[in-house]
Design goal:
alpha/beta; two-stranded antiparallel ribbon; 13 strands; 16% strand; binds 2-acetamido-2-deoxy-beta-D-glucopyranose; glycoprotein; signal; sulfuric ester hydrolase activity; hydrolase; metal ion binding
Length: 410
């Protein structure tokens, strides 16, 4: 796929009138409920690092997601809603994934001098190697292909699902299975990898890090040290362990921001934090989430399932510590981020988008309207669309060692 894009590498103009963030970190928290970070629940759960970014960033108070994970992840990465991606529900362990005709945010940013890495959960298909992250624009992947697993053994339904892929198009002969990491908590592992990516990033390109944490999806597991501070404050043992899972994530985001600062990248980085769906409470397997004040749960289309927590931080924001009350959806991130980094989409560069470019609306706190993604005025006649009959030439890298029966990994 690199071949048909290479003529573009030097031809994407930057919007001269605006200097946006240079790097982008998209942090996706799995199954985060609306009421689960400290700034929402009056400090019941201690999240100093999230709180600091939130208090100096922009809160999206009317932000919507799909009621389960794969559809939202597809929307974030393509700018398109389930009606168009065809990903309407979480993907069980079947021969399906995000269509190879879709163009991902990583692929879009790579044409604009970015190097993209993915860490954590994928859950957009793996039955054939070309559906896996390093074939979708990411130069590395460190995480799991399916929807959930044990945080320590990295086993789901009897199969070890942990892949360490350190090159683009990393198929057989390249993908590693890090068995030696069994026993280590995934929030620590994924944080360490994110910190490594930031520390090793060659600053002659821009960094896009898709950091899709496993936390706080079921199963309910947290190292004791993170749960300890809640012994007195939270009586319910379910919510207490859950709070520990959140605290681990908070420490992780603290480490990530510290790594950015150490590289001198923090001021130049747009950090987005989003859930993938509302917290599972009354439907699907709960880990201890709360969606207060909204009714409903993950797997329902009430606000509790679809109105998510999201905020963004960048030091260059003209207004910080504000709330954007306009409607926003996970599909808006792709055009919004392209705009934020000072670029525009070419005609036909992606399949037609559902998402809107919110960047000017966010910067003006709603004074300006969201825009359909603004295309460059001049069609690029030499930009081919992705070949519709792209045929994988690789054999699947990942052969599940367990049976192919559908997983309950909603
Ligand atoms: C954050 O960094 C500290 C110091 O390196 C480390 O001990 C801790 O485990 C890290 N936290 C996470 C969640 O990875
Ligand atoms: C960073 O990338 C540039 C351009 O590709 C290259 O010239 C340079 O050697 C790289 N630096 C390091 C430290 O790898
Ligand atoms: C990529 O960005 C770096 C740093 O901003 C710059 O030096 C380099 O020329 C850029 N490369 C391209 C191909 O735009
Ligand atoms: C394949 C495809 O979507 N082609 C479209 C590219 O954009 C032009 C307009 O710029 C449309 O007319 C084509 O249909």
């Amino acid at each position: 796929m690199l071949h048909w894009l290479s003529p573009l590498l030097t031809t994407i103009p930057v919007r001269a009138e605006q200097t946006g963030p240079k790097h982008v970190i998209m942090t996706v928290i799995d199954d985060l409920g609306y009421d689960d970070l400290g700034f929402r629940n009056e400090g019941q759960i201690l999240t100093p690092h999230f709180n600091r970014l939130h208090s100096q960033g922009i809160d999206l108070s009317s932000y919507y997601v799909q009621p389960s994970c794969s559809p939202t992840r597809a929307a974030i990465l393509t700018g398109r809603k389930p009606l168009h991606t065809g990903i309407n529900f979480w993907l069980p362990n079947i021969a399906a994934g995000l269509s190879l005709n879709e163009v991902t945010l990583a692929q879009v940013l790579n044409r604009r001098n970015f190097t993209s890495h993915a860490v954590g959960k994928w859950h957009l298909g793996f039955h054939k190697t070309p559906y896996t992250p390093t074939f979708r624009g990411f130069s590395s992947f460190y995480g799991y292909y399916e929807g959930s697993e044990d945080y320590y053994t990295h086993v789901t339904n009897g199969g070890f699902d942990f892949h360490d892929e350190r090159a683009p198009f990393c198929g057989p002969g390249c993908t590693q299975r890090p068995w030696h990491l069994q026993g280590q908590y995934s929030t620590n592992l994924f944080t360490a990898r994110a910190v490594e990516i930031i520390s090793q990033h060659n600053l002659s390109s821009r960094l896009f890090l898709y950091l899709a944490y496993q936390g706080v999806h079921a199963p309910r597991q947290a190292p004791a040290a993170y749960v300890e501070p809640y012994k007195k404050g939270i009586a319910d043992p379910v919510r207490r362990t859950f709070a520990g899972m959140i605290s681990a994530l908070d420490e992780g985001i603290g480490n990530v921001t510290a790594a950015l600062a150490a590289r001198g990248m923090f001021a130049d980085t747009l950090i987005v934090v989003t859930t993938d769906n509302g917290g599972p409470t009354t439907e699907c397997s709960t880990t201890g989430q709360s969606n207060w004040p909204f009714r409903g749960s993950k797997c329902s289309i009430y606000e509790g399932g679809t109105r998510g927590t999201a905020f963004l931080h960048w030091q260059g924001l003209p207004r910080r510590g504000v709330t954007f009350t306009g409607l926003a959806h996970a599909a808006d991130w792709l055009p919004t981020i392209v705009s934020a980094v000072g670029s525009r989409l070419w005609p036909n560069e992606t399949l037609s988008l559902d998402g809107l470019d919110l960047w000017d609306a966010l910067l003006s706190n709603g004074a300006l309207e969201p825009q359909p993604h603004v295309q460059l005025p001049r069609p690029l006649s030499y930009l081919p669309t992705p070949p519709p009959t792209f045929r994988p030439t690789f054999r699947p890298a990942f052969r599940p060692t367990h049976s192919a029966r559908p997983l309950c990994t909603i």
